[in-house]
User: What shape does this take?
Amino acid sequence: MAGGNPIRTVEVLPPSASGETRLVLQAIAAIVFGSFFVIGFHASDGGLDGGPRAGDLAPFQIFFRDATPTVQRTMRELQEGVTEAENARSASKRWPTVETLAAQGIPPFTNASDRWRLVQSGLYVTYVGTSAVGPDAPAFLALIQEPELGYVETVMPAAPSDELHHRLSDGTLLHVSFWFHRESVVADDQVIARPFATGWTQVLVGRQRP
Assistant: This one.
């Protein structure tokens, strides 16, 4: 056009496949970095012991320090007993029976006031103790979840101590939790995979008072 600005034709092309892939990877990297930042912030906020604080508790959870002396005593023994069971699991690839643990003199499996049993189903392993003295005494539960076959879960070396994860000597990472029921329950052959749904209370060590 005479005396006017020339008209230019601009061809708009979509980004190349490699360009699109690069943008997607950059977005994923940003999301992952942000997730690690948030996780690291909460972990550092938890203190060196890495335990939960009072405001972090769910309705079905209680701190060890707030449990009754009876629950505290049995829970302490159960935690030690599960540690011995984990050592046996590392050595033999099988969880020891209650009879085996009792024969080795490992409490609480030697306590005459409780009846203990081992129940396994798939990835879930439970040691359940019910009272032998009456229905008003509490019941106890150690719930252990094995990793799926071929699945490897890792915990960062710098992560705070986590009482819900136990690492065996062979590197297997377990999810372990300890529970009690205010009334003695009937132990059957079913694994209690969701204790909170049937009135069980989880006991956590949490952050220790100075």
Notes: Residues 55-204 form one domain. The mean pLDDT is 75.
